[in-house]
Amino acid sequence: MKILLMGHPNVGKSVLFNRLTGANVIESNYPGTTIDYTKGYMRVGGEEVEVIDVPGTFSLDPKDKAEEVAVKMLHESRDATVICVIDASKIERGLYLVLEIVEEGYSVAIALNMWDVAEDKNIKIDVVNLERILGVPVVSTTAISGEGIKELVSRSRGTAPVEVDDIFERVED
Amino acid sequence: MTKLDVDERWDLIDKISKKTVTFGEYKHTLKDAIGELTVKPLTGIPIAIAVLYGFWSFFSSFAGFFTDGFFVKLFDEHWLLWLQEIFPGKESWLYYIFVGDPSATNCFEAFGVLTSGFFVAIGVVLPAIVAFYLILTLLEDSGYLPRLAVLIDTILHRIGLHGYAIVPTILSLGCNVPAVAATRVLETRKERFIMMTILAIFIPCGAQLGIMKEVIPDTMGFVIFYLFMGYLIFGFILNKIIPGKTPEMLIDVPPYQMPTAQNVGRKLWMRTSSFFKVALPFVLLGCVIVNVLYLTGFIAWMGDILSPLFIGWFGVPSETAGPLIAAFLRKDLAVAQLSAIEMTRYQMISAVVLVSIYFPCVATFAMMLREGWKELLGSIAVLAMVVTLYGGLLHLIWILLGVA
Asked: Is the pLDDT of residue A155 over 80?
């Protein structure tokens, strides 16, 4: 199994990556720290899982070389599960990238990261309902302190591709 | 598979967020207040100057404390004496390569692999690198760098870049190698080329800064000034002659965060150790090569050939040919070597500026090649021009000042 960590710049993908794999990639508080991908491994229930830390990208339409690396990585990993890391305090634009990836037929799980920041800003997200509408696992995480990481790992194992048309239907319910 | 267009996607997101997200009342926090103070020009610019000055003060006092207070004594009074005593055959070439000048009383002048090589790498560069990366990491993790980018955006547009170019520039002060990689966050080829070229030419790395502070503390300010001016002047020229666009900067300024001791410690360790994996072999190898070249008379020969250029055009002694060869491998080593050559204060400024701008070190060269050979060739062409022009210009300034 292979997991790609994708999301906007500076949402905590590298922090999550280090947490998951015990690797040491540089993590900083500014966009564009990761400019190339890094591979790492974690063991989940006896199985070795390859995890890839991908440079941040706003969309699948690359604007610079680091974003090109990200999109290329995604397209070269057709069978991968994508963990979309979203800044929970800026959820809408994070969902844009999620939808793009979902539309391409990938199995997706969502980490609503920086949950603490969202709480500080008094933003409340109905995770259960979001998960129902999207049809993919959604887990709130705070990667810096490690909250939610275990749940994210176990939930992202069973995820499957979803149809956007179904999302349209469920959002109207 | 249904594919949506941009508007449909945003409509869907709108519907989803209406059902799942509620935005409560937002309170202005202390973090926001600090955030505003550091971005608004009126307060932000003085704060930026204070931060950078603090960066510099810490760097020089921390590195000075360890180098002068500890390593100089250790290397000059124990290591050098011990090596001179136990290493056999004072007249042999092996002694010359490994221990260096038998009459040397300090590790800068000896110039052997085991004496100067280790002293430069461990005694001078290690404290400088640790000091630099400690502060850099704090700036990175707190979230200050993107704010600095916002402040400096207007100035950098003059040289064909935008504010975010401050990130590769500052990284480059530690080591040019990761800085070249970091140019990937710039959007256009033009920006990347300008950035890569002027940082490889004009930004001294942490190792160079450390050694300059040690061997030419009085003239270092001038060297930095001339390098900084070169960065702006040649950036400005490149911006005019290179086709292409520089887009406006669009970045997310992240919230301030308290850096965690764990992450700071880990990054410091990673960067210092990877720096040494690259640097130490090159420093030692550089010592060997330069000593062999001296022994075979190659450097004296090169000095003779280049002397019209060196003496006539640049106004520096022809012995500087040796350090220039060493500069291919390591610039810190080259500066250390320069310090042993007899010359005036102004010749020293010229020589150190030349060593700094002349050719990137091997590791940077390799990294630039990885980013694209066309860019690399272009950078080398610019470099040759810059060295000739700027070296001559400095000489002219000295002549006009009546000091050459």
From this structure: yes
- Which residues of A fall within a CB distance of 8 Å from B20? 125-127, 129-130, 133
- Chain A residues with beta carbon closer than 8 angstroms to that of B140: 28-30, 33
Q: What are A103-114's pLDDT values in tens digits?
A: 999 999 999 999
**Structure confidence at residue A127 (pLDDT):** 95
Domain that holds residue B49: 38-250+258-401
User: Which residues in chain B have their CB less than 8 angstroms from residue A10's CB?
Assistant: 252, 254
The answer to whether residue B21 is domain-embedded is no
Residue-averaged pLDDT of chain A:
92
pLDDT surpassing 80 at residue B1: no
Q: Does A1 touch chain B (CB under 8 A)?
A: no
Secondary structure (DSSP) of B211-244: HHHHH-TTTHHHHHHHHHHHHHHHHHHHHHHS-S
Contact A130 B29 (CB under 8 A): no
With pLDDT > 70 as the criterion, what percentage of chain B qualifies?
100
Please check whether residue B320 lies inside any domain of the structure: yes
DSSP B280: H
Residue A69: its chain B contacts at CB < 8 A? 184
Complete domains list, chain A, with CATH: 2-172 (3.40.50.300)
A16-45 residues touching B, CB cutoff 8 A: 24, 26-33, 35-36
Rounded to the nearest 5 percent, the helix, strand and coil shares of chain B are: 80, 0, 20
Q: What confidence tens digit (pLDDT) does each residue in B234-283 have?
A: 999 999 999 998 888 888 888 888 898 988 999 999 989 888 887 788 88
Q: Do B3 and A103 touch (CB under 8 A)?
A: yes
Asked if A64 is an interface residue toward chain B (Cβ–Cβ < 8 A), one would say yes
Residue A103 token pair? 């539309």
The number of folded domains in chain B is 1
What are the tens digits of pLDDT across the range B91-129?
888 898 898 888 888 888 888 889 988 998 899 989 999
- What DSSP designation does B114 have? I
**At residue B401, what are phi and psi to the nearest 5 degrees?**
-80, -10
Residue B401: its pLDDT value, please?
A: 92
In degrees, to the nearest 5, what angle opens at C-alpha B240 toward C-alphas B239 and B246?
Answer: 40
Examine residue B25 and state whether it is found in any structural domain, yes or no. Answer: no
Residue with tokens 């490889």: B200
| Distance in angstroms (rounded) separating the CA atoms of residues A82 and A167 | 18
State whether residue A134 sits within 8 Å of chain B by CB. Answer: yes
